[in-house]
Amino acid sequence: MISWSGLGIFALAILAACAGAGTGIADLLGQSASGANLGTSIGFVVGGVAVWFAGSALNRPKPGYDRSTGRPVLSVNRHRLMGIPMQYYALTAPMWAVLTFNQAIHS
């Protein structure tokens, strides 16, 4: 079962959308349609960059005030997937890119 808080589920959605778009563009350009291709690898890299920046922006601490004491506090957004902050899923994207690139060159 997948658990998330905030917008953490979008880490998977962004990676999947970018990889799918890369595959589709490569297919339109005439690369083999055997599943994974160079476009898929490039899509994972682009998706990883997008997830890193989106997660970093969403999980950035924001200054605010405690209503009961009036003291300044930092509120932390918790956009997580499976308990891991969203931006750290970007670190898995290069692994997927290497795996799909390896499959693309050996098929």
Keywords:
two-stranded antiparallel ribbon, 107 residues, three-stranded antiparallel sheet, 5 strands
Structural summary, described in words:
Helices cover 50% and strands 13% of the residues. With 107 residues, it is of the alpha+beta class. The protein has one domain. The protein has a three-stranded antiparallel β-sheet with strand order 1-4-5, with no helix packed on it. The longest helix is centred in the middle third of the chain and has 21 residues, at 38-58.
Number of strands: 5
Kindly report the average pLDDT value. 90
Proportion of helical residues: 40-55%
Question: What is the rounded distance between the termini?
Answer: 33 Å
What's the number of helices?
A: 3
- Contiguous low-pLDDT stretches (5 residues minimum) are none
Identify the strand order in the major beta sheet. Answer: 1-4-5
CA-atom Rg in angstroms: 18 Å
Give the class from helix and strand content and strand pairing. Answer: alpha+beta
**How do the helices and strands follow one another from N- to C-terminus?**
EHHEEEEH
Structurally, how many domains make up the residues?
Answer: 1
**What is the approximate shape?**
elongated
Strand fraction band? 5-15%
Q: What summary fits the major beta sheet? A: 3 strands, antiparallel
